[in-house]
Design brief:
69% helix, 275 residues, two-stranded antiparallel sheet, elongated
Length: 275
């Protein structure tokens, strides 16, 4: 007859629960797995399957009761690590969407907005189009598999532990978040530059022929030039977007490394004794 103690049951539950928390947090925050169109049952089933595969191979979990306060703190810590790793990839898609927003506003398509199920908000048509292109590129370079590989490596770089993580991980997350604005502006720069030249030409034309209705001809010209430039620039966006994906994967790997730099508190030095 097989008998199990409560300690063994707690150890088995903890060995599966804490890796599952990190995996589910990454699935919920990553741009592809966490899409609203994916059913919640599919996400949970994928997380449980990955946890069952990874749990026997990762370092052993600490001997802490998962129902204690220490176990709850470990659970929260694992959730934060998974959310940060998924959010690092989500920033790349946010940069592409920002490029589409800037391009649509410059073209005059700011009114053409649709409901975005991913962000639960409204985004422009150009932004959603570039986001779909980025999603196809992410799948084409096997970015989803590389992200899962980075997740598996994180259990060895930053094992499940009761020791609090370092403050370096939030700093790396904030530093990487600035990439939204720089990368978004760089991706939209060709469209913005072409439309700026178009607007300058329309301004010169208006001064040369004041009888022209600039409001009647300016909008279709700007819209046509914007769509033409997007069609020209689109084949050349593969390289920059792939570079952003590589940087996002490296950022997701760097976050556990920064969090793993746990330093022991140092005691203040005692004053020297008087001679």
């Amino acid at each position: 007859m097989i008998t199990l103690t409560s300690g063994e049951m707690s150890a088995w539950i903890a060995a599966l629960l804490w890796p599952l928390t990190r995996i589910l947090a990454l699935i919920a925050s990553s741009p592809l797995f966490g899409n609203k169109s994916v059913p919640a049952r599919v996400k949970i089933a994928l997380g449980v399957m990955l946890a069952l595969i990874m749990a026997p191979a990762i370092p052993a979990a600490p001997a802490v009761d998962p129902l204690s306060w220490s176990g709850l703190l470990i659970l929260i810590q694992e959730m934060l690590i998974g959310l940060a790793m998924g959010f690092a990839i989500r920033i790349v898609f946010a940069a592409v969407e920002m490029a589409g927003e800037v391009a649509s506003l410059t073209m005059g398509l700011g009114f053409a907005s649709f409901f975005d199920p991913m962000t639960q908000g409204r985004s422009s048509a150009v932004s959603q189009f570039l986001a779909l292109v980025a999603t196809m590129a992410f799948l084409a370079v096997n970015g989803h598999l590389i992200l899962l590989e980075a997740l598996a490596e994180s259990f060895f770089t930053l094992p499940v532990s009761a020791t609090p993580i370092s403050v370096g991980a939030p700093y790396e997350m904030v530093r990487w978040g600035a990439k939204i604005f720089s990368a978004g502006l760089q991706l939209s720069l060709p469209i913005v530059a072409a439309l700026l030249i178009c607007n300058i030409a329309l301004g010169i034309l208006t001064r040369a022929a004041p009888q022209l209705n600039i409001f009647g001809i300016g909008f279709p010209i700007s819209l046509g030039v914007g769509l033409l430039v997007i069609s020209i620039v689109l084949p050349y966006l593969g390289g920059p977007i792939q570079t952003l994906f590589n940087q996002g994967i490296e950022a997701s790997r760097l976050i556990p490394r920064s969090a793993a730099q746990r330093t022991a508190p140092t005691l203040p030095a005692l004053p020297a004794a008087a001679p």
